[in-house]
Amino acid sequence: MEYFRRPRRLRSTSSVRDLVAETHLRPEHFILPMFIREGIDEPTPIASMPGVVQHSVESAKEEVRGLLDLGVNSVLLFGVTDHKDDDGSYACRSDFVLQRSISELKATFGDQVFVMSDLCLDEYTTHGHCGVLDAKGTVANDPTLVRYQELAESLARAGVDMVAPSGMMDHQVGAIRTRLDDIGATDCGILAYSAKYASALYGPFREAVDVEIADGGDRRAYQQDYRNQREALLEVELDIAEGADMVMVKPASYYLDVLARVRPVCPIPLLAYQVSGEYSMIVAASNAGFIDRDQTIVESLTAIVRAGADGVLTYFAKEVAAWL
């Protein structure tokens, strides 16, 4: 046919490529994880996560101010303290640094910022596990749920917009939703760490929150086995049934197949967490001159969104938003 004899091709320019690109990154779809440390007056660098710091309450406010200027309007807070006990009860105090940070951010910025808070116990326990231990030193699911309920109530009363239970306890979403509803905090959402894998990529995070796990770091009894995929689909289904408002796949880059499998069966917002190890590997390789930092960051985040994430928790949020 005639048109086969006259080959022509649309000239590929950046404008054309942007016009037809299937995946786009937007600052408002990033959530910045932030570490708020008790007892400090200025930001403290985290050695294994160059460029990331533990914030004071005041420096956290300044960080959020800068984020909002760049179009990033969501943060996930983690509390850091030297006051640890056996069951994490210290973190339930109304004057704990996490609750004070939430109150300060909401009082300063109101609904301009969407404040999420991690809800777990590992940062606050002497043993570093995500739950309360029984007499044998094993994480006890049901007593842990009681502590999660108390922490959820404390965070909700501080004004948090959404709690993010990350301990992977059975029925944690249902227990937290029940307590929040009982106290009238029906507008406090739940981001469920539904598909959280027992990964080697959490190492830098443990330095960031000063966690040392008693048995050397083994959480495979309650986090998911990285060899499994179908299990993630079941966990997502269960969390949605119990009242989750959003669900998460964690880590992100090594679990894009899981993210892509979850997407078609997930009718609610689906997030992915580009965790500390993913961050630190990119930073270390780029600092050594092995890769292009900017391009690698954008490519990694694009892959996560392309696989199905509606939003990405990433320590690069502020940096990449400035480019976008």
Automatic annotation (TrEMBL):
Pathway where this protein functions:
Porphyrin-containing compound metabolism; protoporphyrin-IX biosynthesis; coproporphyrinogen-III from 5-aminolevulinate: step 1/4
Q: Which key words are in the record?
A: Heme biosynthesis, Lyase, Porphyrin biosynthesis
The record's top EC class is lyase
From the UniProt record, list the reaction(s) this protein catalyses.
2 5-aminolevulinate = porphobilinogen + 2 H2O + H(+)
The keyword Transmembrane helix belongs to this UniProt entry's keyword annotation: no
Q: Is Chaperone set as a keyword in this record?
A: no
Q: Which GO terms describe its molecular function?
A: porphobilinogen synthase activity
Entry EC number(s)? 4.2.1.24
Q: Which InterPro entries match?
A: ALAD (IPR001731), ALAD_AS (IPR030656), Aldolase_TIM (IPR013785)
Instruction: Return the PROSITE patterns for the record.
Output: D_ALA_DEHYDRATASE
Pfam families (UniProt xref): ALAD
Outline the subunit composition.
Answer: Homooctamer.
Protein's job: Catalyzes an early step in the biosynthesis of tetrapyrroles. Binds two molecules of 5-aminolevulinate per subunit, each at a distinct site, and catalyzes their condensation to form porphobilinogen.
What family does the database annotate?
Belongs to the ALAD family.
The identity of this protein, by name, is Delta-aminolevulinic acid dehydratase
What does the record give as the organism's lineage?
Bacteria, Bacillati, Actinomycetota, Acidimicrobiia, Acidimicrobiales
